[in-house]
TrEMBL record:
Keywords: ANK repeat
ANK repeats: 106-138
Species lineage: Eukaryota, Viridiplantae, Streptophyta, Embryophyta, Tracheophyta
Protein name: Uncharacterized protein
InterPro entries referenced in this protein's UniProt entry, alphabetically: ANKRD_45/46/60, Ankyrin_rpt, Ankyrin_rpt-contain_sf
Top-level taxon of origin: Eukaryota
Keyword presence, Metal-binding: no
Pfam families in alphabetical order: Ank_2
TM stretches of this protein: none
Amino acid sequence: MKMENLASQLKRGISRQFSTGSLKRSLSRQFSRQSSLDPRRNNLRFSFGRQSSLDPIRRRNSQDEMSVPENLDSTMQLLFMASRGDVKGVEDLLNEGIDVNSIDLDGRTALHIAACEGHVEVVKLLLSRNANIDARDRWGSTAAADAKYYGNVEVYEILKARGAKVPKTRKTPMTVANPQEVPEYELNPMELQIRKSDGITK
């Protein structure tokens, strides 16, 4: 009898947590550029905006409208607000006692996220609340490195002026993490459609 009660309670709890509507909403949401992408579970992972500048798998831009999912814990809410550039939302969460240096599964802080997205005011707020300026994510990237990589010059200059260490790296958007993963392509000259007026000569 106890096992039936336990099974019934478990079933009710799961059905509340994963009701058809909430599951459809959570699976249908697409978030712009993130935060975190695990290649082994890339279809169900919640992520924010741009990826770490050292993450080997980065997301493309997406203009989908984002709203705060109902079931996020406080850390994820903070990171989400930082990704949106919502200064008031970030400030409210920090005032509620959320740790400014809270991290996601990839070791990324709100400062990493705001730096990737170029949200100057959020970066200033996080720094005023003693965010760890040199925190590294699981790929070893810092907020300053991410800001520099994504061309967010103003954020990069703010972080640098505050003493952020910028890792020396030769990585560029065209750097290949593993040359064996680069596909080889062969072109058949007969399939190319080139007119003589294109200025191409043999």
